[in-house]
Specification:
heterotrimer; A mainly alpha; B mainly alpha; C mainly alpha; A: mainly alpha; two-stranded antiparallel sheet; 21 helices; 2 strands; C: mainly alpha; 11 helices; globular
Chain lengths: ~500, ~230, ~325
């Protein structure tokens, strides 16, 4: 058996193996790993996950889709794209967290039990997110999205501080309640599917529902109603305003690697749920405009609500959390505009945002461990204390505010250009204005933190390599995406757009 | 599953099943109203157990009279988990939590009850709009109103009551309403989804239970009014 | 109308009145007995209310010096109005000879008349407790009455008539209540607890000035006046139990005048009344009296229950008349 055939053999089951790896890594961490080994197990696990993820992407690029377990798991371009994002950020966050969480342990912030719990849940969290995006059954998608809340609730509330417990409680309750609405929407979709299928049996499988012959038969008014519930439900997890109130608390009080995952990846997985249903509504001309308009409204609302909070923010982790709401709004607007260019921009922005937000949070984590405060005004002169970490942090802030030549600039530019060329001047103008305001806010906050004279009482010391290399890699990737989109990625994006667009 | 009405060779007036389902669905709504009308937590726990029992009876009726066999599993799970285990665990939590003075609800009881009336009306309008499409539900055409109302009332309970335990019960009750909708309008979801939902709810409940202790330890109270450290 | 019908009608009226008068103290005694048993007491014997009434009727009346004619006529007004309601409420048959003189609307107003006079008499006696009781009674009445109206009208709407005999005949719902009837029943049940001064709202067995409402108004009455007032409140309790039993649970009620169906109706009626009275006693034992300011909560619940009953009824459309 040559290497080729082994790869093929593995590739056939890439989805399954990709899901099993983090699950196994989590179990190993929980049961047999010693304190030192747990980090190694997690990192190795997420490396293998990324490897299988890449094999899956490769297969999807070649065949257009991949499936396993009798079509129980199914990945098309959109799924593969999200798998790529989740596994890349997952790996980097894992590497970063080895150093980060052990330093917290060394500082006495958490005890050994919490450390083990952290590694176990982190892997479980990755597992639920990956399962959500490759589940063929829309009901299983729901189960897994709720699973992400359950897996990450303890991660958000890892510290025994009042704020952490409160943030975790808010996250748990709002996430669970919101997602309940999504299940109701799912039931309604199933209901309309029952009358669409010949035998009346109905199905929630994406491969059945997205079949144009079936999608046309789904009742428009039930679909519209279902979409409202689904948008509220998954929108809560995705951080769309006005259901976003849990997000700034959870994202700012979680341990930093978790913040990076929550902000960079989780909200995209929730957005993935919305995109799937948006696709179903696009099938019929009656409902097509409906979902697009709702996405525009919620998107604009999110941008409009998040931006003022960015300006007046006093807590830098919270600053990035509000920026996530803004970016999610932007992605929703891009999808809602509905032109191929805006959708391309939106999907590209999902990746760019994930990379740059992870970068920004990792930078924030380094500063937090050094300064022991989350207040912007009490952090000055970081560049003098830890030059590389501070520069990467500054670059990350520039990246999330959409400065050229970063990738975020490119994708934001694509969305806006698509909006203007489609004649949606008011919407694009509004977005442009708020992006500019938020940009100003970021630059002011970040330059105050990074530059200036070093404060007394903080020992100048560079952050350890384990917390710098992931950031360096992220800076490289965001810059690369701003200048050049590799060919495979371009193809994958095209396939993902096909999954979002009219069937 | 071993038996349902046709297996036993019995033929019932189809209305009997519908009437049973209607009646016990209505009991569920009564429980939801009582959640709003009282602030005693122990009563809340018992009401939740009773609401779940009504749900289990509805599920058994659906399974038995309509011969939707897979719903037997859901009915039995409801009976074991929601009627027995969760209420017992909740009683235990209540015993171990620190007693506390009453907290005023954000909206007083008469007003929240009147809002509840409005919500039932809204639920009805929603149902009518679905029925107006000409599609028939799997069974019990009017139970959807009740199930949406149960969900909305549970949400109202969570919004207006500032006690953590009440919020947990609100969430569980909301899930009951959702489940009622699932079994009556589509005669249940695909099995794998149904089991997954059960699993999620159970895990969510236990996680919330752990957080109840942690809130109680960290704040010395489980009044969410104290949970105001976080602003915008 | 021929002579036989007229005579049957008259006999029916007399039987209804006699039953109402005689049965009412027995129901009150039963409620007390159940409460006593639940509280591990032996309680008074079942005939005690009759002995009390008989004793009071022979006793001298002492009237406050400040009292006017209102104080004198009130017991008669209250007694007669309450008794007259017995003529328009179906007891064990839905055929009401005097059904044409009044319907549910009349019922609400006749009861309001009795309440009005009781409150006036409470003020008239000139004692501070009387005034206190009257003011509490009237402020509660302002929220009880809308709730009662809505609860009763819900029943009327579901039956398509305001005549209580027709409502009872129409509401033949089979063994299982419809959701609409369940809600209307619970709504009316709460109203009944409030109207008859049972525990979550008022305590019929207390003379503690902080809590009493109804008892405070009739504190100055003695002798036969007190007997009439006590008898009237017994009848009011029976009246509400009858409404609950026959409007919502009309199992066995007779729709004609044959002896067999009348017999079935009578037995069924007796069972239902004692069952409902037992439920009421159990609730009285297992709940604590609400503070006066919390009573609106309870009545709001009744109001909303009735409202939901109406909503559900319109959802059901005409289906509610379906017979199992």
């Amino acid at each position: 058996m040559g290497i080729e055939s082994i790869i093929h053999f593995i590739q056939d089951d890439a989805i399954l193996l990709m899901l099993l790896t983090p699950l196994l890594a989590g179990i190993f961490c929980a049961w047999i790993g010693t304190r030192r080994e747990m980090g190694a197990i997690s990192v190795t696990g997420s490396m293998i996950t990324l490897l299988f993820g890449l094999l899956l992407v490769d297969k999807v690029l070649a065949n257009g889709s991949a499936s396993a377990l009798n079509n129980f798991l199914y990945a098309d371009g959109l799924s593969a794209y999200l798998v790529l994002i989740i596994s890349v950020i997952g790996l980097l966050a894992n590497i970063y967290s080895v150093s980060y969480i052990h330093e917290e342990y060394a500082q006495g912030t958490i005890d050994a039990g919490r450390l083990r719990l952290y590694h176990f849940l982190l892997n479980l969290f990755l597992f639920t997110m990956l399962s959500a995006v490759v589940a063929n059954n829309l009901g299983v998608l729901w189960v897994m999205v709720e699973g992400t809340t359950l897996a990450s609730a303890f991660l958000v509330g890892l510290y025994d501080r009042e704020e952490s417990v409160e943030a975790a409680w808010k996250y748990l309750i709002l996430g669970s309640v919101g997602i309940t609405f999504a299940l109701f929407g799912t039931i309604l979709v199933y209901f309309s599917a029952q009358s669409a299928f010949q035998n009346g049996a109905g199905s929630l499988n994406w491969t059945d529902l997205s079949n144009p012959a079936i999608a046309h038969l789904l009742d428009p008014s039930i679909l519209k109603l279902a979409f409202i519930f689904l948008l509220v439900g998954y929108g809560t997890k995705a951080g769309l305003a006005p259901m976003h109130t849990w997000l700034p608390d959870a994202h700012s009080h979680a341990p930093t690697p978790i913040s990076a995952l929550l902000s960079g990846v989780l909200i995209n997985a929730a957005m993935y749920g919305i995109l799937r249903y948006h696709h179903l509504l696009l099938a019929s001309p009656v409902t097509a405009g409906f979902s697009a308009n709702l996405l525009l409204i919620f998107g604009l609302l999110s941008i409009g609500i998040a931006t003022p909070f960015i300006l007046v923010q006093k807590d830098y982790k919270r600053l990035f959390a509000y920026s996530s709401i803004k970016h999610m709004g932007l992605i929703a607007v891009g999808i809602g505009l509905g032109t191929p260019l805006s959708q391309f921009g939106s999907l590209l922005h999902v990746l760019n945002h994930a990379l740059s937000k992870a970068l920004a949070f990792m930078g924030a984590g380094n500063i937090l461990l050094k300064y022991h405060t989350r207040e912007i005004f009490r952090v000055v002169g970081a560049a003098k204390i830890m030059p590389f970490a501070a520069i990467f942090f500054f670059l990350g802030t520039l990246a999330i505010s959409g400065v050229p030549p970063f990738g975020t600039f490119l994708s934001e530019f694509l969305i806006l250009a698509a909006g203007f060329s489609a004649g949606r001047y008011w919407i694009s103008g509004f977005v442009l204005l708020f992006l500019a305001i938020a940009f100003a806010g970021f630059i002011i906050h970040a330059s105050r933190m990074v530059f200036g004279s070093a404060p007394e009482g903080v020992v100048p010391e560079e952050a350890p390599a384990m917390r710098l290399w992931p950031m360096a890699l992220l800076v490289f990737l965001v810059l690369l995406l701003g200048l050049y989109i590799p060919n495979p990625l371009h193809t994958l994006l095209q396939q993902a757009i096909a999954a979002v667009n009219v069937p | 599953m071993p038996f349902c009405s046709t297996d036993l060779g019995l033929t019932f007036d189809p209305q009997i099943g519908e009437r049973l389902i209607d009646l016990f669905a209505a009991f569920m709504l009564v429980c939801s109203l009582l959640f709003l009308a009282t602030e005693r937590r122990r009563l809340h726990v018992r009401l939740y157990a009773f609401q779940s029992l009504s749900l289990a009876i509805v599920a058994f009726s659906v399974a038995f009279f309509q011969c939707e066999r897979h719903i037997f599993i859901a009915a039995i799970l409801t009976l074991i988990l929601k009627v027995i285990i969760i209420p017992i665990v909740m009683e235990r939590i209540l015993h171990r939590l620190i007693p506390q003075q009453t907290v005023k609800p954000a909206i007083n009881i008469p007003a929240s009850l009147l809002i509840a009336g409005g919500l039932v009306l809204a639920a009805d309008l929603l149902t009518q709009s679905i029925l107006a499409t000409g599609h028939q539900f799997a069974l019990a055409q009017n139970v959807l109103t009740i199930s949406i109302a149960v969900m909305l009332l549970a949400l109202l309970t969570m919004v207006t009551r500032k006690k953590a335990l009440t919020q947990v019960i609100g969430f569980l009750s909301m899930e009951n309403g959702l489940f009622l909708a699932g079994i009556t309008i589509t005669a249940g979801m695909p099995m794998i989804v149904e089991l997954g939902v059960f699993f999620d709810v159970l895990v969510a409940f236990f996680i919330m239970g752990v957080f109840l202790y942690r809130i109680s330890e960290t704040f010395d109270t489980i009044n969410l009014e104290r949970l105001t450290k976080l602003k915008h | 109308m021929n002579w036989t019908e007229l005579i049957t009608g008259l006999v029916m009226i007399l039987i209804q009145l006699a039953l109402f008068l005689l049965l009412a103290p027995l129901v009150t005694a039963w409620v007390r007995k159940v409460k006593a048993i639940m509280q591990n007491r032996q309680g008074p014997r079942m005939m005690q209310p009759y002995s009390d009434l008989w004793k009071l009727l022979r006793k001298e009346v002492i009237q406050p010096a400040t009292a006017s004619w209102i104080f004198t006529i009130t017991p008669y007004v209250v007694f007669v109005t309450t008794l007259s309601v017995a003529l328009i409420v179906p007891i064990f048959t839905t055929i009401l000879p005097l059904g044409f003189i009044g319907d549910v609307i009349a019922l609400v107003y006749i009861l309001a008349t009795a309440r009005f006079f009781t409150a006036l008499a409470g003020l008239d006696a000139g004692s501070p407790f009387g005034g206190l009781g009257s003011s509490r009674e009237m402020s509660l009445a302002s929220i009880i009455e809308p709730a009662m109206m809505l609860a009763i009208f819900t029943a009327a709407v579901t039956a398509g008539s305001t005549n209580l005999g027709t409502i009872a005949a129409q509401a033949d719902v089979g063994l299982l209540l419809t959701p609409a009837h369940l809600f209307a029943f619970l709504g009316l049940f709460i109203v009944a607890m409030a109207e008859t001064g049972r525990i979550p709202v008022d305590n019929p067995a207390t003379h503690l000035e902080l809590t009493m409402i109804h008892e405070a108004m009739i504190l100055e009455y003695s002798g036969k006046y007190l007997a009439l007032m006590e008898w009237a409140s017994s009848m009011k309790l029976l009246l509400f139990l009858t409404l609950l039993a026959n409007v919502f649970l009309p199992w066995g009620i007779s729709n004609d005048l044959s002896l067999v169906s009348l017999g079935v109706g009578a037995v069924g009626y007796g069972l239902k009344i004692f069952a409902l009275a037992t439920v009421m006693a159990v609730i009285e034992c297992s709940t604590a009296k609400l503070r006066l300011f919390r009573v609106p909560d309870l009545l709001a619940a009744s109001f909303v229950l009735s409202l939901i009953a109406l909503i559900l009824f319109y959802l059901l459309g005409g289906e509610s008349h379906a017979v199992l």
